[in-house]
Amino acid sequence: MPANSKYLTQSRWQRFGKITAGILGGYFVAQTLHLAVAAYTSHIVVLITSTFSLFIIWAALLICAFLAKNAWKVWGIYIGICILLSVLIYLAPPLHPLPA
Predict the structure, then answer these.
(1) 91 CB neighbour count, 10 Å cutoff
(2) pTM for the complete prediction?
(3) Using an 8 Å Cβ cutoff, are 89 and 39 in contact?
(4) Where does the sequence pass through the membrane (predicted)?
């Protein structure tokens, strides 16, 4: 059974955008999510847990990138999420203040 032609009409740039958004953008979002959680909770527990959960979140974001119709919207959403999480990391209060 041949593929439906309406799914094969994407330009090369759209395919490239979806692939890079899924692989790189999904990884950056998953990583900044774990760093943001680590900024507000126990660092060690989150970093140990991230070895497994980071891959699961990355795989889900990779699939979500291919479900969208426009790759640039996916990139915009992933970059926006990364910026938001980076701001949360920056604004996080220090958990262990430095000794005076």
Answers:
(1) 8
(2) 0.83
(3) yes
(4) 21-40, 46-68, 75-92
Q: Write the burial class of residue 78 (CB in 10 Å: 0-12 exposed, 13-18 middle, 19+ buried).
A: buried
- How far apart CA 85 and CA 67 sit, in angstroms, is 23
**pLDDT tens digits, one per residue of 30-61:** 999 999 999 998 888 888 888 899 999 999 99
Question: Would residue 29 count as lying in a domain?
Answer: yes
Tell me whether residue 47 is in a domain: yes
Q: Which amino acid belongs to residue 98?
A: L
Backbone angles phi, psi at 42, to 5 degrees: -70, 120
Residue recorded with tokens 């090369």: 12
**Residue 17 CB neighbour total at 10 angstroms:** 21
Is 63 inside any structural domain? yes
Within-domain flag for 25? yes
Q: What is the pLDDT of residues 85-98, one digit of tens each?
A: 999 999 998 876 66
